[in-house]
Amino acid sequence: MPRIGVLALQGDVREHARALEESGATAVSVRRPAELETVDGLVIPGGESTTMWKLADTFEMLEPLRLRIKDGMPAYGSCAGMIMLADRIEDGIEGQQTIGGIDMVVRRNAFGRQVDSFESDLSFAGASIHAVFIRAPWVESVGASVEVLATAEPGDRIVAVRQGPVLATSFHPELTGDVRVHEYFVNMVREL
Ligand code: GLN
Asked: Which residue's CA is minimally distant from atom 2 of ligand 1?
């Protein structure tokens, strides 16, 4: 069984751990570099990216996370986690850093300017799913090696992407009880 970490600095860690376990993985909390070393893949939860960045900096996790992702560790970020996995962000706070991993520009709180939260049915990598968006970012632009896996109204915005072993969604599949996005990620980890 793949051993998948959930970055447990802030955010909805428990919901992701449950969805991973239901998808056939062993889920463990990751807060420190030594814990990061023990996992085959990592989920970065939804929450608040500014807080997550500051805590990752305080816990001296930013560099270890960057190194493992550069090294090819599979990672999946939802919402705030998507922001953390973006190489570049718009509408971050002063000095806000990310881990990076996907060649894209993500706009923070993008849908939130129009409507704070909403739900929408969309097609994710060919599967029809119900997606929950909460003060969600969208992907403003992607580089040539990034695959777009889902778009959403309003505006046909990019809301799910993959670049090699790194996956990100604007929405929160951990909140719906439908574990197909987590299964998709667990399969990515298995394939490596
Ligand atoms: N707006 C949040 C941020 O900037 C993300 C919201 C979420 O994860 N639900 O991190």
From this structure: 48
The residue written with tokens 């998808």 in the block is: 23
- 108 Cα: distance to centroid of ligand 1 (angstroms): 7
Neighbour tally for 16: CB within 10 Å: 29
The residue whose CB lies within 8 Å of the most ligand 1 atoms, and thus the one to mutate among 9, 12, 15, 48, is: 48
The tens digit of pLDDT for each residue in 36-84 reads 999 999 999 999 999 999 999 999 999 999 999 999 999 999 999 999 9
For ligand 1, say whether the CB of 47 is within 6 Å of any of its atoms.
yes
pLDDT in tens, 81-108: 999 999 999 999 999 999 999 999 999 9
Nearest to 120 by CA among 136, 135, 132: 132
Indicate yes or no: pTM above 0.90: yes
Total length of the chain: 192
Kindly give, in sequence order, each residue whose CB lies less than 8 Å from that of residue 64, ignoring residues fewer than 6 positions away.
33, 36
Q: Going from the N-terminus, what domains does the chain have, and what CATH number goes with each?
A: 3-191 (3.40.50.880)
CA distance 21 to 25: 5
